[in-house]
Each structure stands twice: as structure tokens, then as C-alpha cells.
Amino acid sequence: MRTQPTLPAPRHWRNGLLVLPGLLLFSATSASADRLVQHFKVEAHPVVTIHNPNGTVTVRAWTKSEVMVVANRATDRVAVDAEQTGNRVDILTRPVSETSAPEDLRTDVEISVPEDAELQIHNDSGGVNVSNVLGDMNVETIAAGVDLEDAAGYLTVKTVGGSFQCVRCAGRLEVSSISGNFRLIDVRSYYVRAQTSTGNILFNGEFLPNATYRLKNYSGVIELRFSPGDSFDLSATSLKGKVHNEAKLDPPSHHHFLPRFGNALFGTLNSGRASVQLSSFDGTINVLKRN
């Protein structure tokens, strides 16, 4: 985790132009006082950090070698600071008064980045939406939900109560939450680790050869969808819950520890080219055919 810089006051929004030593930056503002726009020229593999306590963060990839930031503020009681240092762009929204009400601080931020950008996003409430970004990504939220689409790289997501959905993601995926639900759809990742305490987990993706998929919760439902042609070695255990299975598994080729209490399922589908590990304490595990 990189240490975030202390950003200056929002003087760079004045008159649409900012010139600071060591920064290559031009900004343009619209006629609306609550809609702020900036452009940053970047090189390959830029790093973009976003800190937004309240609001929606939307990041989309485009073909330009620049980062464009569009911030829509609820009121002028919140400031949007953005600056560039080398090939790094830092974006921060913050209150300008200690007496500002939470609803006054909402800011929706739309960011366009090169597809190879690395993202670091911190958002307390609202939502995070990222599409077509192929660089590494770290997202941390409290109550904000996270939706990724066509993302790749090393993806790490942590939420407290926010939900998580990943559609057509690739690379390496690690996601954890206290009470959030997870939906992993059409995933093509070689490593997936998803853990939530009281949430549900759905995995309906591709099982790549030599890949590992670990899904774990304390309570809730873990649902794994498969096709008859898939190939994986399966371990599914729930200490106090149920395990339901529709896969025609061959007996495991090696010994597994069988819990004294609870339900367990071990076996191999086809040649067992991927490793699938499902575990719950008080939840239900469903291994079901795709519709």
C-alpha cells in the first residue's frame, strides 16, 4: 500500500489552469461551479489513486495517453484536489468545513484512464465501477459496492459491508468482506480467493488448467456452477450446514480428512485439472449444473 500524499487546497481549479513546479498539468472547468474537469498527460502504466468518502467512482479505459477527471459535487462544501507527480495522478475529495453535513459531501467522480493504468481506490459509501482496465487494481470500501467488468491484472478488493461483482475478469483475484455478497460471472482467472463472513458467494466462471479457486464464508450460501465438460478436483465442507451436489465425481485419488461433524464432499470431475476448495462453517454449499 502506497503512502498517500498530502494534497494542496483546491486552488488549481481557479480559472481552469494550474501551473506548479514539476507538474505537467492542464485543467479545464465547465460553466457549472459544481462540475469540475481536469486532464493529465501520462506515459505508459500510470498510477491513479482515488480517495472519495461519499459518492460513486466510475473508471473507464480509453485509448488516449491521458487521465481525465470529471467531478460532480453535491455542494461547494466539498473540495476536489487533483495533481500529477511524474506518472502518478492523485485525486482526493474532502470537506472544506468541519460542520458540513454528510449529504453535502457527496461527489461523483468519473475518470478515464489508459487501459494499462494501475488503480488504487478508497471509497467509504456510494459505489465503485471499473470497466476495461487491465492494470493491477486495489479497491477498499466500507459500505460501497464494487463492480468490475472486463478487468485483468492483480485485483484485490476489500469491503466491510459492500457487495462485489466481477464480470469477465481475468488474472489474479482476491476479495474479502465482512457481510458483502459476491458474484463472479464469466471469470477467467487462474487464481481466485473469495472470503466473506456472512455473505453469499456465486461462482459461474471458467475453470482454467492448473488454476486454484478458494471460496469461503462463515454463513450464507456458496454456489458453484459447472458444465459437464469442466475439469477440477473438488473439496467442499460445511461444519454445520449442508452440501448439495449435482456433479458426477470420481472418488478422490488421495486421502482427505473427513470432519466428525458436518458434511463434506470430495472428488474429481473429468481429469481434475483445476483445484476447487469450498468451505463454510454454518452455510450451505451448492455445486450445481449451469442452466
Short account of what is shown:
With 291 residues, the protein is mostly beta strands. The chain is built from no helices and 23 strands. The chain has a 23-stranded mixed sheet that branches.
Contiguous uncertain segments of 5+ residues: 1-33
In percent, how much strand structure appears in the residues? over 45%
SSE class: mainly beta
Rg from C-alpha positions? 22 Å
What gross morphology would you assign? elongated
Describe the structure.
The chain is mostly beta strands and about 290 residues long. The chain contains no helices and 23 strands. The protein has strands spanning about 25, 35-40, 45-60, 65-75, 80-85, 90-95, 105-115, 120-130, 135-140, 145-150, 155-160, 165, 170-175, 180-185, 190-195, 200-205, 210-215, 220-225, 230-240, 245, 265-270, 275-280, 285-290. It has a 23-stranded mixed beta sheet that branches. It is elongated, with a radius of gyration of 22 Å. The chain starts with about 25 loop residues before the first strand and ends with a strand.
Name the descriptors.
mainly beta, 291 residues, single chain, 0% helix, 23-stranded mixed sheet, disordered N terminus
Write the layout of secondary structure elements.
Blueprint: E1 26-27, E2 35-41, E3 47-62, E4 66-73, E5 78-85, E6 88-95, E7 107-114, E8 118-131, E9 137-141, E10 145-149, E11 154-158, E12 164-167, E13 170-177, E14 182-185, E15 188-196, E16 201-204, E17 212-217, E18 221-226, E19 232-238, E20 243-245, E21 263-269, E22 274-280, E23 284-289
Parallel strand pairs: 3-6, 3-7, 3-8, 8-9, 8-10, 9-11, 10-12, 11-13, 12-14, 13-15, 14-16, 15-17, 16-18, 17-22, 18-23, 19-22, 20-23
Antiparallel strand pairs: 1-2, 2-4, 4-7, 5-6, 19-21
